[in-house]
Amino acid sequence: VIETTVIFVAIGLVVFALAFLIVVLVAPFSVNKEIEDDQNTSLAIIIGSFIIGLAIIIASAIHG
Fold it and tell me: Is this model's pTM higher than 0.90 or not?
């Protein structure tokens, strides 16, 4: 049981990291600069929503 949990966690983290990397690369601006330096709250909310949505999708795919 623990082995499958670790495997699913690893797969979920890899998929999550790849999706987040794609979003950062596709954005026509620096996401890091916009959120940290310019205090762009709306972008932070959008990125946070993306993270939550992706986590729900990964969890449903793993759960079956």
Answer: no
